[in-house]
Specification:
The protein is of the alpha+beta class and 159 residues long. It has two domains: 5-87, no CATH class; 95-158, Transcriptional Co-activator pc4, Chain A. It contains three helices and ten strands. The protein has helices at residues 59-65, 69-89, 142-158; strands at 18-24, 30-31, 39-40, 42-47, 55-57, 95-96, 102-106, 109-116, 119-126, 132-134. Strand 4 and strand 5 (55-57) form a beta hairpin. Helix 1 (59-65) crosses helix 2 (69-89). It is elongated. The two termini are 37 Å apart. It binds zinc ion (ZN). Zinc ion is lined by residues 32, 34-35, 38, 57-58, 60-61.
Amino acid sequence: MSSFGKWSKQGVPKKGWICIGFEDLGEPAAECEMCENQEIRYVHQMQHQDYPNILECGCVCAGKMEEDYAAASKRESDSKNLAQRRARWLRRKWKVSANGNDYLKTDGFHVVVFAKAGGWSGTITDLATGVATQARRIYETQDKAKLGAFDGMIWLKTH
Ligand SMILES: [Zn+2]
């Protein structure tokens, strides 16, 4: 497998890469730019100081390039877990506040969505600090506002 694509090309570093981004394409929709021989759904964006381009790679190649297969594998399983959690998010038992708004307490946050002129919005409050973050955009539906709140909460958790 290591003889494919850029693995056998001179001038392409074989180790010392770092992962600078990760994306789930939803289905196998790209080809690993390192081995040029694998359809990939989960894209590891790999960067090297001695190489001009960022390469979009599959898990196996990314693991070899950064010499840490466990890290690459964890990025992929974290992403799968998150996608599953996001799919279940709307089916969770949302409570209804005194104002009639759906809310959830989860992961140390209070998440509420509410109707607003022109659509739906939401607020995520960090229960530890009391800091409230308001959705920046208006969503067409309540469900979309809830999914936006999920993405916002995950972002707050990881930044
Ligand atoms: Zn590959």
